[in-house]
Batch of 3 targets.
Target 1
Amino acid sequence: MELLTIGAFARAARLSPKALRLYDELGLLRPAAVDADTGYRYYDPAQLDRARLVAWMRRVGLPLARIRELAELPGPEAAEAITAWMAEAEAELAARGRLADFLVDYLTGKGAPMSDTHATLGLRFAAGTAQGRVRETHQDHAYAGSTLLAVADGGGPHGDQAAAAAVDAFCSLQPELASLEQGVRAAEAAVRALPSEGDAPFTTLTALVWSGSRIGVAHIGDSRAYLLRGGELSRFTDDHSYVQQLVDAGELPAAEALTHPERPLLVRALGASGEADISLRTALPGDRYLLCTDGLWAVVPGLAELLTGTDPQATVDRLLAAADDAGAPDNIACVVADVVAV
Ligand code: MG
């Protein structure tokens, strides 16, 4: 066996001697021999693969402890572990990006600035749900309070519990604008703690957190949040659904989304996969907010008209009645909240 000096080995591995000394100190790659007198390190050419592998893993950004572990694994197992680690790293980065966006919005006071008149704003609210005429279970859930509004549409086994657990966990944490992300994590943990029967329970969650004139939005799935302002109804959540993906990709005309057979299929939900969208809005006196599950929006046309002219409770009753008139093929949950000067 012909050993190489550290210089020759470094050239062959396209690494610096300094990097090799570091790998030795970190226990990632020990030299084949060390001269007892001079301390010079010698390497076996058979160690080249390991040196290149370690260097590559360092460039990927794997932590040293992970590299030590992975370098010992057979190729396919190491590959699997690296793929899993990258997915984790990407999810973490995405979560950090959303938090950063949120913070930037918050710091730049996006939207109307808070003024003294806004400091005296409050919410008037009502919530309601109905099982509908067709479904044998009721898996929708709604909550409305002076600082929190939420709807959830459960699915899978114990879908009813999933929706209730998500809303309860989110609301009992009393999240504020800066802790929406924690609220969503608590809701997700509550859903994942439920028993599963082969299939795991899952749920949508669309929640608003109210703070002065600011509203934080946490949203995952295909329940929706709308704003009625100055007589105009606009939606400010995206559907995390298969058909919406098709529409976004230009593979399905938007007009056909509602009648597509896969319309209820979700691509993101608590307990299943995907992250919640977190955003921040500014409320104005006179704003009316509607949160609802697909049992309302996919069934009842003319929401703007139904939302006009009555107080929150009467409006919720009217919306549930409209869904019933339309055959109520799905469970329904809705929340109506008005921003009012107190
Ligand atoms: Mg539904």
Target 2
Amino acid sequence: MSNSTGSIPNDQHLSLNDPLKLVDQYQRHKTKLRISLTDRCNFRCLYCMPEHPVWLNKKEILTFAQLYKFCRVMVQLGITHIRLTGGEPLMRQGVVEFIQHLQQLRALGLQRISMTSNAFYLAPLAHALKQAGLDDLNISLDSLDADHFLHMTHKALQPVLAGISAALEANIALKLNCVLLKGENDQEILNLVHWAYLQQIPLRFIEYMPLDAPQHWQREKVVDEDDIIALVSQHYHVEKQQRQHDPATIYLLNQHYPLGIISTISKPFCLSCNRLRLTANGEFLSCLFSNQGGSLSDLLREPDEQALIQTILSSVWHKPAGYIAHQAAPQRKITMHNIGG
Ligand code: SAM
Ligand code: SF4
């Protein structure tokens, strides 16, 4: 599928039997898909939500049947890893049954089903999610101080900690995600590392990206990877690991604990990006920083799948270089809670 003219792959490349279909003009192969199940969220994280979010009309949200069809086609095209996200994915009723349904795609090549959640509603659902076949869960945790957590998310910390305990009891593989904002939670870096280290739950710090409300992001608010590591190195033996496809750079603390840093801003990793995204209303985003996505909503209603496949392949092929090329916020209305991170 290599094509030095940068043109769209033609029909003869569209067979579902071809193993290398989701590839872009820069020869990046796509194996990971993130699906937003809803744009709604019970949190108002300072770095994610606009102050007055405008929710999608419920009629615009893709049905589970449309989502399943999309996932099936994507797995047939080479996706091996699906992550369910949002908004808050646990606010979508039927999510457990959807995960159960996705199990059928393992026979077609799907290897992992994951979720990213704020964990507020997790405690009563953890066992059912595990039983349904969820492989792993990333939980956002921006502070361990109840007052500060409330300030950052507008919600209480305790149900989130209960959700983490329930997921551990249910034996779901966990990682913690923490977006750092200078002047907000950067004082908690060591506290979070110590806590996660003691519990042996991998923690990843995420650099604040310009994907929240327009004009809100400021470069000065970003806590850079190098500054985090300089601080952590004063307390742990730190060894940087060779970068893999994962967006996080892993640092081994005391030779066994993996601390990850996702440094989109200070060290963009666009050249190895293997991800694609679908918003809750069917916008297909080949890049987190794309100015626009193409809507697949109508195509997902059609019984014939050729036009859908063509559109997907064309959109993937034209995937832009990414943040690395512009180093600026995208010019668009949708923000992080629409996209799902
Ligand atoms: N509600 C779920 C949660 O918070 O985990 C899933 C959706 S959330 C949009 C997915 C991820 O995006 C979370 O880990 C969150 O911390 C991250 N995120 C949101 N806004 C961000 C921003 N402006 N920069 C970097 N990461 C962000
Ligand atoms: Fe909600 Fe997640 Fe955004 Fe926080 S980061 S507002 S929990 S979607």
Target 3
Amino acid sequence: MIKACLFDLDGVIVDTAKYHYIAWRELAKEMGFDFTENDNERLKGVSRMASLDILLEIGGIELNQEEKEKLATRKNEHYLSFILKMEPDEILPGARAFLETCRENGIATALGSASKNAMTILNRLELTHLFDAIVDGNKTAKAKPDPEVFLKGAEELGVEASQCVVFEDAEAGVEAALAAGMKCVGIGSPDILSKADIVISGLDQMDIQKLTNLI
Ligand code: B16
Ligand code: MG
């Protein structure tokens, strides 16, 4: 029996990657190098400071901790200027409907995201009330592929890992779900997410039957 669904945020509920990209690219430009959309793929599901390390590696730039923190803060301010303008119509197709379906079927829901801005985003999208537990980058010490974020989510819901299904768009997130002993539905490309139990293009392709068939 599946008792809980755990959702990643960026790439599953909403496409915030495009705003991360604009903000990181701006920083790269200021430092004198380009940051392509292809480079941005490497930042999906990765924490803010780890993302900055990847950006600096691409630019061949070395900075001390204090300088890095200043840059990360500046990037986040820029990113927030987009997030704070988001509207509920930016929710990815099927995401709200599937969260509601979980509710109607007595399946608990949790967010499991690396983002420290997750609460701000869920509030903007008017989705906060559809989650029974929210585990974000402020509550976790270990980044995906470590299973911490999903194990904490299951713990907050009081559900066994074996009765949880995770929805993830990043390879590291799929690995985190499997390491937690949970089933995983990949959202995106079957080539990249080949370790997931099934891969779909979006939550609009999900229903209770497919969920039940996972166990
Ligand atoms: P923040 P997810 C992740 O969200 C993003 O995919 C990743 O690109 C970002 O660096 C990370 O959140 C941290 O975000 O700067 O807002 O704390 O996919 O785990 O929901
Ligand atoms: Mg993601």
